[in-house]
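Researcher: Please translate sequence to structure tokens.
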Amino acid sequence: MRRGAKGEERKRQPSSLVSRPSPLLNVQFNYFSRMKVLMVCLGNICRSPLAQGILEHKVKQKGLDWTVDSAGTGGGHVGLGPDNRSQEVAHAHGIDISAQEARRIRYSDISEFDVIYCMDATNLVNVRDICHSLEEEAKVKLIMEESDPGKKLDVPDPYYGGASGFERVFQLLDRACEAIIENHGDHRQ
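Model: Translation complete:
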């Protein structure tokens, strides 16, 4: 009981923090309504451009307000477009990735993006190495964990192989990107 202005006792009214839902209850909704996703591989010319193109395609189909980009941990292909074989396999599935340009990941990407999906364990370690906190490291994940949780699967680098390797990579990334949409795409603006 609290005393009123005239000294009478009255029941305590719930505070505004109790009577309204906590904003923390909606963190997931707010977090994913405008999700920013970065795809990362070594050179940013094979796997991560495919992953970017596939997820952008699915995001557009679902009407989600997401930003998708890609980068590489190495700088050997900066400024180049995706490998022709990546472009061909994407085109065969109705996706155009020809406008993408390779870039190297930078520290500012860690804070700019909500989640960073790496194509393999080596790139996962390399990206986590540039993080400054455990919170930042928690944003960095293997992409295949979305579709195959707990298996720690890598997306193989198809660069030194033939066209069939690029198709296999496309299928893996398509499955992972579909899982990303299923796992996080319900949270619309």
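Researcher: Any highlights?
Model: The chain has one domain: 32-184.
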